[in-house]
Design a protein that fits this description.
This protein is of the alpha/beta class and 297 residues long. It has two domains: 48 residues, no CATH class; 245 residues, 3-Layer(aba) Sandwich (Rossmann fold), CATH 3.40.50. The chain is built from ten helices and eleven strands. The strands form two sheets. The protein has an eight-stranded mixed sheet with strand order 4-7-6-5-8-9-11-10, with helices on both faces. A three-stranded antiparallel sheet has the order 1-2-3, with helices on one face. β2 and β3 form a beta hairpin. α2 packs across α9 and α3 crosses α4. The longest helix is centred in the first third of the chain and has 21 residues. Bound molecules: zinc ion (ZN). The site of zinc ion has 7 residues, from loops.
C-alpha cells in the first residue's frame, strides 16, 4: 500500500469517528475537512500528520529518554513481558463489558497514556480472537515520540498526542478507558466514559520489578512501596468492580537486560556508575507484580 493510500485510509477512519473528538482549546465539536484536518466550529485546525496521528495538545513533551524508553518497552512487550497482563486485561474486559458488547453495535476503547501503543494493540488482538470485532481503539499520550512509534507500527488504530488534563474527546464517548502504569485524570475519565462503561487501571504492586529495585535501592533507605493511596483515590471516583492481583516471573536473557533497564523509570535516578554496575549483572528473572482495578461510574 502506498504512503498516500495509508494517509487517506487514516483520514477516512478519523472522519467516520469524528464525533469522538472535541477541540482541546475551546471544547467545541470537530469535523474532518478536506480529508486531512480536524476543524472545530471556532476554526481551530488540527492536521493529520504524515505518519498518521493527530496532534491535539497545546504542548507535547520530548526528553532524551523517550525514544530509547519506547523502543525498549516495545522489545520487552514483543518478547512477552506483559503477555499475562494483556491476557488478564482482555479477560476482565470480557467479564465486565460483555453486556455492553451485546447491547451496542460498535464500541470505543481508549488507552490513556498509551506510550508506544503495544498494550492497546495486543489487547485489541486478544479481543478480536475472543470474537469482539466491532470496536475502534484510540490511544493518547503526551509524548510525541510514543505516538509516532505507535502510528508507524499500528496503522489501524487512532493515535493522538493529547494532554490528560484536556482530553480532546466529547462527553461519554468511550465504553472502556484503560490506564496502564500511567498517570490518571479521573475527572476527565469520568467525563469521557459512557454511562455503562468501565475504567481499567493497572498499578504496580509491592514486588513489581523487585529484583531491579533491590539493585538500585539497596543503598537508600526507601520505605516499603504501598499503593493504598492510589487504590483509595480510584474508589473515591469509581464503583470498584474488581481488584485482581497478578504476579508472575519473567525469565530474562542477556539480550533483555538492557531494554528492561531502559524501560523502567527506576533507572532514571541511577548514576553512570550504578548503571554500568547493574548492566553487568545478569538477572535470571524479574518479578512482575501488578494490581488490575476495574470500576464504573
Ligand atoms: Zn476550538
Amino acid at each position: 500500500m502506498s504512503k498516500w493510500n495509508k494517509h487517506e485510509m487514516k483520514a477516512d477512519l478519523i472522519g467516520k469517528h469524528q464525533h469522538l473528538f472535541r477541540c482541546p482549546l475551546c471544547s467545541q465539536p470537530m469535523r474532518m475537512v478536506e480529508g486531512k484536518s480536524l476543524l472545530c466550529t471556532n476554526q481551530h485546525c488540527y492536521d493529520l500528520s504524515k505518519c498518521g496521528y493527530l496532534h491535539l495538545a497545546a504542548r507535547s513533551y520530548k526528553t532524551k529518554y523517550d525514544k530509547q524508553l519506547f523502543s525498549s518497552r516495545r522489545m520487552m512487550c514483543n518478547n512477552g513481558f506483559f503477555d499475562p497482563l494483556n491476557e488478564a486485561i482482555s479477560s476482565t474486559i470480557m467479564k465486565f463489558m460483555k453486556p455492553l458488547f451485546d447491547q451496542k453495535s460498535h464500541l470505543y476503547l481508549l488507552d490513556a497514556g498509551c506510550g508506544e501503543g503495544t498494550h492497546l494493540s495486543h489487547i485489541q488482538d486478544k479481543l478480536t480472537w475472543k470474537g469482539i470485532t466491532e470496536l475502534t481503539s484510540v490511544g493518547m499520550d503526551l509524548s510525541k515520540e510514543g505516538i509516532v512509534a505507535a502510528a508507524k507500527e499500528y496503522p489501524h488504530t487512532l493515535w493522538c498526542v493529547a494532554d490528560l488534563a484536556h482530553c480532546p474527546f466529547s462527553n461519554q464517548q468511550f465504553d472502556g478507558v484503560f490506564n496502564i502504569l500511567s498517570p490518571s485524570n479521573y475527572a476527565e475519565f469520568t467525563r469521557i466514559l459512557s454511562e455503562d462503561g468501565c475504567v481499567l487501571k493497572v498499578i504496580p504492586e509491592q514486588y513489581y520489578l523487585r529484583e531491579l529495585r533491590c539493585l538500585y535501592e539497596q543503598k537508600k533507605n526507601k520505605p516499603a512501596y504501598s499503593n493504598d493511596n492510589i487504590l483509595s483515590r480510584f474508589k473515591d471516583h469509581f464503583k470498584l468492580l474488581s481488584a485482581e492481583r497478578l504476579t508472575y516471573r519473567f525469565m530474562l536473557n542477556a539480550d533483555l537486560m538492557k531494554p528492561l533497564l531502559h524501560m523502567t523509570p527506576l533507572s532514571w535516578g541511577a548514576t553512570e556508575a550504578d548503571w554500568q554496575q547493574v548492566q553487568e549483572i545478569n538477572l535470571p528473572y524479574v518479578t512482575v507484580d501488578l494490581l488490575i482495578l476495574c470500576g464504573k461510574k
